[in-house]
UniProtKB/TrEMBL annotation:
Region (Disordered): 172-220
Biased composition (Low complexity): 172-183, 193-213
Keyword entries, A-Z: Acyltransferase, Transferase
Protein name: N-acetyltransferase domain-containing protein
Keyword Aminoacyl-tRNA synthetase: no
Pfam families named among the record's database cross-references: Acetyltransf_1
Domain N-acetyltransferase, residue spans: 17-167
Organism annotation: Streptomyces cuspidosporus
Length: 220
């Protein structure tokens, strides 16, 4: 009698996501994550198409990446760079990857790209109630600089504007190609170093803050 085939043992180590440039054929899978993670104000396909239209060539002003694991798209992020100011346009990871360090890897990739664009600062907007994302940004040295009242509609939720003053100091400078092939690990600043989480973040100033790079309502 033939012995029964033993059941396949599940892989002990989950696959580490690969981060690579986002292309137009990724948009459909990105949108599936987008509507799950930003149900109130998901970007339309046209917004992603428009962003990617500026992501290649010598005059590129955008840098978009996706993360894939086991054939699944599990994260994406994008950055705009204009006049030496970068803006995190979006950053998201699949729920079952939260807390694995993927968000930090994507953010490292964007900051490295900001350095390659020779940006002197990186700005972002984040919902005032999104503490998880704010903690991620704080770990990289982003600081609150203002509030945009009612930025997120239709929920009328305010955005906290955060700024990273010196992207070159927050991520290892690398060529974009190198950073895509082998993304740098998330920085782990020593306690007390400039990039460590402040024990109590300074309260954001109300008032005027720099405008976004474009009219797009950013998700990061
Ligand atoms: C915000 C978001 C991008 C963070 O992504 P993430 O993959 O969870 O990020 P990380 O894993 O790098 O870090 C998140 C937390 O996990 C912890 N973590 C990181 N690596 C870890 C590991 N190996 N084991 C356990 N915890 C880990 C981090 O310390 C961090 O904890 P903290 O929140 O207490 O500081 C993700 O939650 C998301 O997509 N949210 C929905 C969309 C969104 O809000 N985007 C931001 C818009 S501004």
């Amino acid at each position: 009698m033939t012995p029964a085939t033993p059941p396949a043992t599940p892989s002990a180590t989950p696959e580490v996501p690969v981060v690579r440039e986002m292309r137009w054929w990724d948009i459909e899978r990105v949108l599936r994550l987008e509507v799950d993670l930003f149900p109130e104000d998901a970007w339309s396909p046209g917004m992603f198409w428009s962003e990617l239209a500026h992501a290649r060539g010598p005059a590129a002003t955008r840098h978009y990446v996706v993360a894939e694991a086991g054939g699944r798209l599990v994260g994406y992020a994008g950055l705009a760079a204009v006049d030496r100011t970068a803006d995190v346009q979006t950053i998201a990871t699949a729920r079952d990857h939260w807390g694995t360090g993927l968000g930090a890897r994507l953010l490292t990739n964007l900051i490295t790209a900001a350095t390659s664009f020779e940006c002197r600062e990186v700005l972002l907007e984040v919902r005032v109630d999104n503490r998880r994302a704010q903690r991620l940004y704080e770990r990289f040295g982003f600081e609150p600089i203002g509030i945009r009242k009612g930025y997120y509609q239709p929920g009328n939720v305010d955005a906290l504007v955060m700024r990273l003053a010196d992207p070159a100091a927050a991520a290892e400078p690398a060529t974009p190609a190198a950073s895509l092939a082998a993304p740098s690990p998330a920085p782990s600043p020593a306690p007390g170093s400039p990039a460590s989480v402040p024990s109590s973040a300074p309260g954001p100033a109300q008032g005027s803050v720099p405008s976004s790079v474009q009219g797009t309502k950013t998700h990061g």
